[in-house]
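My hope is that you will study the record closing this message with an eye to the fold:
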Amino acid sequence: MLLGFWQCPVQVPNAARATYDSVYDGFGNWPFNSAYAATQGLQAFVPRMGSLHDVEASLQQGLPLAVSVRFKTGELPGSPSLRPVGT
């Protein structure tokens, strides 16, 4: 989706093959995804944001974000707990 935002459409199967992490045995590895973006002529980075203020600042600069959110049961009221961490 982020590649599409930057007018760099790719075929999902091609992106998946290029970002597969054999050690993790799966997809969704942020550094691999960032490296793939570089092969498409883009720059990407994997920040660790400490608050929603950091997220807002990036969005206000026009930088789209893809996020992973990790929380334990009860830490994020109102959220679905499909597979909570640490319980």
